[in-house]
Amino acid sequence: MTDIVSASWVADQGADLRIVDVRDGWEYDGLGHLPGAVNVPFDEFRTGSGGEGMLPSDDEWAALLSEAGIDADSEILAYDDHHGVFAARFLVTAELLGHDPERLHLLDGDFSSWQLERETESEAPDVEPTEYGVSPPETTPLVDAETVADAADDPDAVLVDTREDEEYAAGHIPGAVLLDWRDLVDDETRGILPREDALAVLESAGIVPEKRIVLYCNTARRISHTYVVLRHLGFEDVDFYEGSLTEWEEENRPLETDESE
Fold first, then answer.
1. In terms of pTM, does the model score above 0.90?
2. Which is it for strands 104-107 and 177-178: parallel, antiparallel or unpaired?
3. Are both 83 and 158 inside the same structural domain?
């Protein structure tokens, strides 16, 4: 499973770790980046042109990773400067398109927290392109709208909306509980909450390891972070609604508001 690793862990790794910075190019070039990091901007792998939801096609993904010098066996660390939410999307994309999740790592914290205590670089590394091959896995956590609709009535499942309070109040999938993805983030460290604190936040929303957890947001960006955190905490049964509210509303499915409940 994708894990969340400390800055110290990253610093101790050798050159075999492929570090991916998913910020915009101007940030990567102008503000500096982690030593050895390559730049794969978020917008480049959020195409929605060939895969499900906002996922890139197999060919688009293979071209991006090949250019970045990543192959199918690479250990990958991703980071951003937004508490990890954009980097988590990169890693979830990699998992859904067949990269071994045991080789995927999210930096605990982000670029801002890294640069407070550790060195950065301004020059892009020399990268030898590879021929990355996409091998879609036999099973994935992806679920469709019908599965999501059924989850609200399943006593063994919890349907989770990871957006902000105001968005949830304005309209959410019937039966969903609210968990703003940022509730699992420590604003001071810019990483995830300590384990026991994170589990307490989740339990307060009825999200416990014994249940099947079904995640959605608007376009599957924010649920990527929550998915990675849940898996890191040991949750084994986590479903991922890639279509999220974008697809749900396109299909004219019902929404609840605070007034309608």
1. yes
2. unpaired
3. no
Distance of alpha carbon 4 from alpha carbon 88, whole angstroms: 10
Sign of CA dihedral 190, 47, 10, 179: positive
19-77 pLDDT tens trace: 999 999 999 999 999 999 999 999 999 876 656 789 999 999 999 999 999 999 999 99
In angstroms, the CA 135 to CA 67 distance is 18
Query: Which residues fall within 8 angstroms of residue 197, CB to CB, at 6 or more apart?
Result: none
Which segments in the chain show pLDDT lower than 50?
Answer: none
Cβ(133)–Cβ(30) below 8 Å: no
β-bridge pairing 212-216 and 238-240: parallel
CA gap 58, 51 in Å, rounded: 7
Q: Domain residues for 191?
A: 145-250
Instruction: Give how many domains the chain has, as a whole number.
Output: 2
